[in-house]
Write a structure and sequence with these properties.
Radius of gyration: 17 Å
Oligomer: single chain
Order of helices and strands: EEH
Distance between the termini: 19 Å
Structural class: alpha+beta
Helix content: 25-40%
Largest sheet: 2 strands, antiparallel
Length: 55
């Protein structure tokens, strides 16, 4: 799942938040499966962590 949280704004102030979930694509599922397999085998040399929103 892909999760996004958006602020609900009224009169310029955040009054709450809305959470949106979307089903992952087949490619995203395959990528996650490969990452899990690699992590179980101790092969995370090519893994890069990044903050949300970064390319």
């Amino acid at each position: 799942m892909t999760y996004s949280t958006l602020p609900l704004v009224k009169n310029g102030k955040a009054t709450g938040y809305m959470s949106v979930q979307t089903k992952p694509s087949i490619a995203q599922v395959r990528e996650a499966e490969q990452l899990y397999k690699d992590s179980k085998n101790g092969n995370l040399n090519n893994v890069k962590l990044r903050r949300c929103g970064e390319p």
